[in-house]
Design brief:
Strand content: 15-25%
Number of strands: 6
Order of helices and strands: HEHEEEEHHHE
Mean pLDDT: 82
Shape: globular
Helix content: 25-40%
Number of helices: 5
Largest sheet: 6 strands, mixed
Oligomer: single chain
Distance between the termini: 41 Å
Length: about 190
């Protein structure tokens, strides 16, 4: 908004200057829509996710299909990733350091109990994207996590979850800082 007003004011000043000096001036059409902002790219390293690598990649792809403000990409060799994804024998959890950064653990304990690996991956990535748990909750809510039960295999965020991520990362793209969260989220 500030840039549009400044450029509009600059155009008006130029027109006045030209008219005062006897030059010809043509009014430019005002800018009606801001150019779309590029998605904030976050990289993830799933090298330590062992047997869950394809589930992690699918969870990232689901977020990419679901929101426009952020894009999750595998880190290139030697590149420091925003998100590390590791497999361990505990319960799945996320340790966000700040919005879009942290570590995800895909815990085998939940998988052994029958929880869906793609849902776990998408859910834990949701924490890194700034979403809290919403327990208890229905299967239609990705962030309901384990409270939806082992029969729930829905790995997709609902409309409210998508909107929250869009808002957080949309704010970050235009320079407004969302609230920082540094906590361990154990599902």
């Amino acid at each position: 908004m500030h840039v549009r007003m400044l450029s509009g004011g600059l155009a008006a000043a130029c027109l006045v200057s030209l008219s005062l000096t006897g030059g010809q001036a043509a009014a430019a059409a005002p800018q009606t829509a801001a150019a779309p902002l590029a998605a904030r790219v976050l990289t993830y390293d799933a090298g330590g996710s062992a047997e869950f690598r394809s589930a992690v990649d699918r969870g990232a792809a689901i977020w990419n299909e679901s929101v426009d403000a952020v894009e999750l990409r595998p880190a290139a060799a030697g590149q420091r990733a925003n998100i590390r994804v590791l497999a361990d024998n505990g319960w799945p959890r996320a340790l966000p350091t700040n919005l879009g950064n942290g570590t995800v653990y895909i815990g085998r304990q939940a998988v052994d109990q029958g929880y869906n690996t793609v849902r776990i991956s998408a859910h834990e990535l949701g924490h890194i994207l700034g979403l809290p748990d919403r327990k208890p909750g229905p299967c239609s809510s990705l962030m309901s996590g384990s409270s939806a039960g082992t029969s729930c295999t829905n790995p997709y965020p609902n409309a409210a979850e998508k909107a929250e991520v869009e808002g957080s990362f949309g704010d970050a793209r235009v320079g407004r800082a969302p609230a920082a969260r540094a906590e361990v989220i154990v599902d």
